[in-house]
Specification:
Elements: H1 36-41, E1 55-57, H2 71-81, H3 89-95, H4 106-117, E2 124-126, H5 134-149, E3 154-160, E4 174-184, E5 189-193, E6 203-207, H6 208-214, E7 219-221
Antiparallel strand pairs: 1-4, 2-7, 3-4, 3-7, 4-5, 5-6
Helix pairs in contact: 2-3, 2-4
Pfam families: Peptidase_C39_2
Keywords: Signal
Protein name: Lysis protein
């Protein structure tokens, strides 16, 4: 599915009451991937569903990850909860599949999101360049706005070195998954639902610039 197939009406998802549980601890069928260069060569994204609002956030059912290596299942569950009553982290860990080494690739998340939602909306976006190219940054912001406007949270696979940490992260490199559930166009910030439990709150705002530098060389589902 190309990015331009996201020309569809905004979908109103199920608004679920956010409920947190206490933190416990800090490959499969391959979906289509879309490069920033391919998107740049494609037709422009239609305005419908893409025009920015000042602030847009989604209602989610939040849980911290239930093991030290279930950030992938927890972030996937958070994303699903904006639209459906989500499966357990255990079920998602089995489906991804996630091992004690974590969830290997963001494409596994894309497949599971689409399977549960019965859609082809989610695509795997690779960001191999570190720092990202301007085309990759532009695509990421466009995905944030388009997906959040249509009630689809984004799941991001990040690499956070000690020099580039979200709030509360320990002083070493963290390989992690979290969920983007909102944006503020007035200052280009994004709202993160982070299952790690490092930050003092379950959700927090990051600058878009920091988000764009955290994802390479991994990717995101949008």
């Amino acid at each position: 599915m190309t990015l331009t197939t996201k020309f569809k009406a905004a979908v109103s998802g199920l608004a679920l009451i956010a409920a947190a549980v206490l933190p416990v601890g800090a490959a499969a069928a391959v979906p289509q991937t879309v490069s920033a260069e391919a998107v740049a060569a494609a037709k422009p994204v239609p305005t419908l569903g893409y025009s920015t609002q000042t602030v847009k956030t989604l209602n989610i059912d939040f849980q911290y990850q239930q093991t030290g290596y279930w950030c992938g299942p927890a972030a996937t569950r958070i994303a699903l909860s904006a639209r459906i009553s989500p499966p357990s982290q255990q079920q998602l860990a089995n489906e991804l599949p996630t091992t004690t080494n974590g969830t290997d690739w963001i494409g596994q998340v894309t497949r599971v999101l689409n399977n549960h939602l019965g859609t082809g909306w989610y695509e795997t976006k690779e960001m191999p360049n570190d720092p990202p190219t301007q085309a990759q940054r532009d695509l990421l912001w466009r995905d944030v706005v388009l997906d959040i406007n249509n009630n689809y949270p984004i799941v991001a696979n990040i690499v956070a070195p000690a020099s580039n940490h979200p709030p509360g992260y320990p002083n070493y490199t963290i390989y992690h998954y979290f969920t983007v559930i909102g944006y503020d166009d007035s200052d280009q910030t994004v709202l993160i639902a982070d299952p790690a439990g490092f930050a003092p709150t379950a959700t927090y705002w990051l600058t878009f610039n920091q988000l764009a530098t955290l994802i390479p060389p991994k990717g995101y589902s949008a």
